[in-house]
Design a protein that fits this description.
Keywords: Signal. Belongs to the leucine-binding protein family. This is Amino acid ABC transporter substrate-binding protein. This protein is of the alpha/beta class. The protein has a domain of 172 residues: Response regulator (Rossmann fold), CATH 3.40.50. The strands form four sheets. A four-stranded parallel beta sheet has the order 4-3-5-6, sandwiched between helices. It has a three-stranded antiparallel beta sheet with strand order 7-10-11. It has a two-stranded parallel ribbon with strand order 1-2. β8 and β9 form a beta hairpin. It is globular, with a radius of gyration of 20 Å.
């Protein structure tokens, strides 16, 4: 927080870009508010987003709430259960940090409301090196559905362990990192059918152009979730400054709260301090992480079920 304070009070920067992660955005939000800086949080998921928007009127929570992601997943699971393709039993693990706590709490409520049963629910601390025991315990219950609200290193380790142990549930859903190109590069064809948060409209010219520009500038592809949302937030900030015709933060913030903007996610407004109709469930299909929910979203694909079996020839690298 001292670094943020210094940028504001000593360097006197006109605007600040958001940090990465739910925890960091929550930590800096009061400081942004105190000094009148708009916070366009593109990598924070919190159930309290509506409350924080009222507490800190210059804050915008672009990834939305945990309930949005949990309900998108439950909608798909409910349809599968209704069709007789899965039962009621779910195995869930989560990291004991901001993201994992938020998502696991929202998921528990959504599962209970929909009549699903958590046959296995385990949290693990940040920095856990050996996740094999957790994956083994979940595998031994033979669930149709396995969910991990995990951070990128854990997402890689959990997937690796599931593959090694031959744990191949019909629905395999892991957390942050699944939508990263790193995930596809590491697991190759084994990513097919793996689900997670986010996703893209793979047919959108604007999204395709963004991915190409990202590769040209950085030498790597962007992730298929927060990267696009964060960039859309930067487009909003740029256009709000242009619309205001000034660097006065109060005037710019007023434009963010009241105008509509052209972004790579389409035309959006942030009047409710969140991105409307955002993709909340995605899946790797034919080498691309495509959006599944909400089904009404442009370019939304159908869920591929069941997840493809792990391939021995497509081992992690």
């Amino acid at each position: 927080m001292r670094a943020v304070e210094r940028l504001i009070t000593q360097d006197k920067v006109d605007f600040l870009l958001p940090p990465w992660s739910t925890a960091m955005n929550l930590a800096v939000a009061p400081t942004f508010h105190r000094y009148g800086y708009p916070l366009l949080a593109g990598s924070a998921v919190t159930e309290r987003a509506p409350e924080f928007a009222k507490r800190w009127p210059n804050s915008y929570w672009l990834l939305g709430t945990g309930s949005q992601y949990a309900e998108a997943l439950v909608d798909q699971l409910t349809s599968l259960r209704k069709a007789g393709k899965i039962g009621d039993s779910i195995a869930m693990v989560s990291i004991a940090d901001g993201f994992g706590i938020e998502l696991a709490t929202a998921a528990r409520a959504a599962f209970q409301k929909a009549g699903f049963k958590l046959a296995y629910a385990k949290t693990y601390p940040v920095g856990t090196q050996d996740l094999a025991p957790i994956v083994t315990e979940a595998r031994n219950l033979n669930p149709d559905v396995f969910i991990a609200f995990s951070y990128p290193p854990d997402t890689m380790a959990i997937t690796d362990q599931a593959r090694v142990l031959g744990f191949n549930p019909k629905v395999f859903y892991t957390g942050v990192g699944t939508a990263f190109p790193l995930y596809k590069n590491r697991f190759g064809a084994n990513v097919e059918g793996v689900a997670s948060l986010g996703g893209i409209d793979a047919n959108s010219p604007a999204v395709k152009a963004y991915i190409q520009r990202h590769k040209e500038v950085t030498g790597a592809e962007p992730d298929r979730w927060a990267s696009l949302v964060t960039y859309a937030g930067l487009q909003v900030l740029q256009q709000a400054i242009e619309k205001a015709g000034t660097l006065d933060r109060k005037a710019v913030s007023a434009k963010i709260a009241s105008e509509e903007f052209d972004t790579i996610l389409g035309r959006i407004n942030l009047k409710n301090h969140m991105v409307p109709n955002m993709l909340t469930l995605g899946q790797w299909q034919n080498g691309e992480f495509v959006g599944i929910e909400p089904a009404s979203h442009a370019g939304a694909a159908k869920l591929v079920f069941p997840k493809s079996a792990w391939q021995a020839g497509a081992a992690a690298r």
